[in-house]
Amino acid sequence: MKKQTVTVVVTTVVTVIVVLVAIIFLMPFLGPRYLHPLMMGDQPAPASLDTSSAHLSEDGLFRVSWTSEPASPPLNQIHTWTIHVETADGQPVEQAEIGVNGGMPQHGHGLPTSPQVTQNLGNGDYLVEGMKFQMLGWWEVRFNIAAGGQTDTITFNLTLE
Ligand SMILES: [Cu+2]
What we know:
single chain; alpha+beta; Immunoglobulin-like; 4-stranded antiparallel β-sheet
């Protein structure tokens, strides 16, 4: 082979390797922001979506609200939520059993983690650890709440942008 040909081949191979390595390293940043939404069709969230962070549960038993730490749920980062549970007439619910699930209704997948209520903070507040959203778009987060022999479910909508 001529020396020139060897140089061209080596340059091409090195370029391909560098590009592949760059793609692999950038995937955690590019994936959630561009690739996953693209693969899933990237529909906008319904315009009428109720994204309030405080409302009544489905059967009206509990009034529930959530806050996140940091205040806006981050993309692709494990973080914590605190939810506050009251009876419909505003009394804190102190001894609730709470399950967490959720997902992206438009994508047909659930949460990437299995968040758990890990601490009863008192006064109707509960710490939820292990929250994570790995994609931009519309998410549902559901809490199944059992207290005083009754159960009810609440679903919060949020859109990550
Ligand atoms: Cu998704």
